[in-house]
Amino acid sequence: MSRIIAIANQKGGVGKTTTAVNLGACLAALGKRVLLVDIDPQGNTTSGIGVDKTGVGRSIYNVLINEESIKENIVKTGYDNLYLLPSNIQLAGAEIELVMAISREYKLKYALEEVKEEYDFVLIDCPPSLGLLTLNALTAADTVLVPIQCEYYALEGLGQLMNTISLVKKHLNKELDVEGVLLTMFDARTNLSIQVVEEVKKFFKDKVYRTIIPRNVRLSEAPSHGKPIIVYDSRSKGAEVYMELAREVLGIE
Ligand code: ADP
Ligand code: MG
């Protein structure tokens, strides 16, 4: 059975892409077959895993808009068990091109049905908006993983996200569940970070992952090298915590 997880939060810069790349790489390192789906026109997951955005003719755009087969658009990454459906800048137009399409919210779901059994996990990195691309991700997903940055406005906008999730449940994907809420960029030196953790736990209760991702410079450096953290610096705190998150997602203590 495959598990399709959308990584979503309409706020930018909260750690969606960092989590997609690194959770994906850690699950793959633990022997799981993983497909990363980059549905953000910025293509940061694509470049973050070391695939050239401009060079690949293959992309999620071809699948969503040109009805090409998903199989022919998936590329290998440099890592065992880890595959990618890349994004490129063309995807920026898809949000509008999809408006007129038939079953426009179901494009990704139908495409993934063709390949999902080949993977243990499909992780979808969403753009920072609640438009049609994110709706495609939420419609295709079994669950949503919500990264929340430990900062002042952490909870702002989450009502809107939860509202979107419940609308999707009602109209497009009855089975959609919240996979978990991930606290990111935690800074133990600040009271603010500690307060945000308390607030988020009060709100989301047992949905909050035990694993909390601290602010870690190595994590922010890794994307420019096109490497997941466990390859870029396997001894860093960032590598340790994303491996811990992967184990938590797998239910391994
Ligand atoms: P999103 O995909 O939600 O926009 P990103 O994952 O791209 O967010 O993260 C935003 C920025 O913060 C990126 O430059 C990334 O490298 C950096 N970043 C993410 N998580 C951490 C972390 N735990 N520690 C330090 N920097 C981080
Ligand atoms: Mg991103």
Automatic annotation (TrEMBL):
Protein name: Sporulation initiation inhibitor protein Soj
Domain AAA: 3-177
One Pfam assignment: AAA_31
Catalytic activity: ATP + H2O = ADP + phosphate + H(+)
Matches recorded under InterPro entries: AAA_dom (IPR025669), DNA_Partitioning_ATPase (IPR050678), P-loop_NTPase (IPR027417)
Species of provenance: Thermosediminibacter litoriperuensis
Domain of life: Bacteria
Subunit structure: Dimerizes in the presence of ATP but not ADP; ATP-binding is required for double-stranded (ds)DNA-binding. Interacts with DnaA.
Family recorded in the similarity comment: Belongs to the ParA family.
Transmembrane segments: none
